[in-house]
Amino acid sequence: MTISRIISLFVVMLISISSMSAVELRFVNWDGEEADLKFTNKGKTVTIRAAESTLSPVYSFDGPGPLVLFKEAMVEGKTVRQTAATLSVPPGLTHAIVVVAA
Q1: Which of 65, 67, 69, 91 is a plausible cystine mate for 87, CB 3.0–4.6 Å?
Q2: Cα separation values, 30 from 4, 95, 98, 100, Å
Q3: Cα-flanking dihedrals φ and ψ of residue 85, to 5°?
Q4: Are 29 and 50 in contact (CB under 8 A)?
């Protein structure tokens, strides 16, 4: 493989990686405070805090979508995920405010 082919392959990889950018999310709750919602990002569970009067800290979501918000509950001695919402992430979206409502 020549050096020009290696450089070309590297440039293509950089372009494809840069097009997969993270979505920055902030949450606000419609009524009260929510501290039990979670989502998974890069294989790690992230717990969000959504208050009524202020925006949450910024959370990043790097997945292809959808964004699945869930709560964890104990059922028969096992922790299970209970889906609270499934949100489609439009292509090209970089920032979002998610309003949490019952």
Answers
A1: 67
A2: 55, 19, 10, 6
A3: -165, 150
A4: yes
Cα-based torsion angle of the residue sequence 9, 11, 63, 56 in order, rounded to the nearest 10 degrees: 160
What backbone torsions phi and psi does residue 97 show, to the nearest 5 degrees? -115, 125
The 3-class secondary structure across the chain, one letter per residue, is CCHHHHHHHHHHHHHHHHHCCCEEEEEEECCCCECCCEEEECCEEEECCECCCCCCCCEEECCCCCEEEEEEEEECCEEEEEEEEEECCCCCCCEEEEEECC
Output the pLDDT for position 24. 94
- In single-letter form, the type of residue at position 7 comes to I
pLDDT tens sequence across 28-83: 998 888 888 999 998 899 999 999 889 999 999 987 779 999 999 988 999 899 99
